[in-house]
Amino acid sequence: MHPFHRSRPVRIPLRWKIAALAAATACLVAAAVGVLVHVWTAHDIRQRAEAEAFNTMYSAMDVYRRTGTLLDGAELDPPGLPAALRSPADSDRHTAYDAREDDYGEGPTVWAAQRTGGPGSRVLVYRVNMAPRLHDLDQLDVTMAVASLIALAVATPLAIYGAGLLGRRLGRVSETAGRISGGDLDARTGPTKGRDEVSEIAATVDLMADSLGQRLRTERQFTADVAHELRTPVGGLLAAADLLPPGETEDLLRARVRDLRGLVEDLLEISRLDAGAELPARARVPLGAVVSEAVVRTGLDTEVVVAQGAGTVETDPRRLERIVCNLVLNAHRHGDAPVQVTVEGRTVVVRDHGPGFPQALLLRGPRRFQTGATERGSGHGLGLTIALGQAWLLGGELHLANAPDGGAVATLRLPV
Question: Where is the Histidine kinase domain (predicted)?
């Protein structure tokens, strides 16, 4: 687990998004197909009914004119005849659709009508009841709806399964990127199945990791080489400063040489942490006593509160002291008094009452040679970086935050 954490927003898995999109698409397609089938079928049913009424009326008129009798279903001037067919202007055959129910409770009707002779003669009518046909249309609609639901029930699990495969592949890439972001430069996605965009993303992430790892290794090697090369001349400068006659110049030069030596030692420590050459020497020690002694060694006015729950921990006391000293020095250098150190259980909290950590530091974590805003004071930006590396080496977590009422808060949690 990386020692510096940022909260992540709640995310919706990709598989559910794809499944929802597939289900919505299937519903839209089913609705569109259902509407088209309904409209086309209804139009076809009406055309067939009109053709049946028209042809039957033609046969009935031929029989009536020859024999004077009516075929079954044919009528003369029925009372329910639509007004458009009651007084046709000529003797041509006409059809009409009537959506009303007749006196017998029969539903929509298609009428065909023609005058038996010239103007003023009676109107011969034949009608086709549409109720059975519309009932069949309703049954077709129900069948289409059931078929759409069955198709949706089958398509959604398949979409979830396919999206799950894609999500797992993307998850591997995301996990690899997260491990690289957490400092694991050897993390790789490796070959992935398929020849698509996901494979290209995975290959790009691996290529980026190779390039980033090479650059970081070059940078770390350069830092280590510079620190090693500076160690000898800095030691010579410190020895030469001891030969100067006492005075203000000697004190100023000695202070600057000590600062330079401290910077070189910090760089060497960072290079060893980066290279993984450090190993903790664990021992069972009283946490409160180790923290109190580390605060005293800083020589700074710091309030230490050891709760009753602070007991014995198994850790490397030298590295623990290094973390506490760096956090206390950082609080005094960049914050304001009072600086408080609280020990409770396996947790050590260092708090100041200054302007707090910069937002950039809280978002991206400590960066070497970056101290945040200029008003937070001087320094090389290595103290928090070293504390973070030492906490990770001890298996602990170092969380940086700002208190609601102002001030920076650094919380060190040691592992069980």
Answer: 225-416
**CATH number of the domain where residue 343 is located:** 3.30.565.10
270, 294: one domain: no
pLDDT of residue 341: 92
Q: Is 68 exposed, middle or buried (0-12, 13-18, 19+ CB in 10 A)?
A: exposed
Alpha-carbon gap, residue 102 to 108, rounded angstroms:
8
Helix axes 131-181, 14-67, angle to 10 degrees: 170
Strands 340-344 and 303-306: parallel
Q: Are residues 293 and 254 in the same domain?
A: no
Q: Answer yes or no: are the C-beta atoms of 305 and 340 closer than 8 Å.
A: yes
From CA 28, how far away is CA 20, in angstroms rounded? Answer: 12
- Most confidently predicted of 195-199, 305-309, 313-317: 313-317
Give the tokens for residue 180. 């690289």
**193 in a domain, yes or no?**
no
End-to-end CA distance of the chain: give it in Å, rounded: 15
CA distances to 72, 330, 395 from 277, in Å: 107, 25, 15
What range defines the domain where residue 299 resides?
283-413
Q: Which of 88-102, 116-130, 175-189, 392-406 has the lowest mean pLDDT?
A: 88-102
Strands of 109-177 (E only): list them.
Answer: 109-115, 123-129
Give the phi and the psi of residue 328 in degrees, each rounded to 5. Answer: -70, -45
pLDDT tens for 233-280 read 767 766 776 677 776 776 677 777 776 766 767 666 667 666 666 677
Query: Which amino acid is located at 54 in the chain?
Result: F
56-65 long-range contacts, Cβ below 8 Å, gap at least 24? 56/112, 56/126, 56/128, 57/93, 57/112, 57/113, 57/114, 57/124, 57/125, 57/126, 58/93, 60/124, 60/126, 61/93, 61/114, 61/116, 61/124, 64/116, 64/124, 65/116
**Tokens for 40?**
């086309």
SS3 11: coil
pTM metric for this prediction: 0.49
Which of 288, 298, 274, 396 has its CA nearest to residue 342?
288
Residue 318 neighbours by CB distance under 10 Å: 13
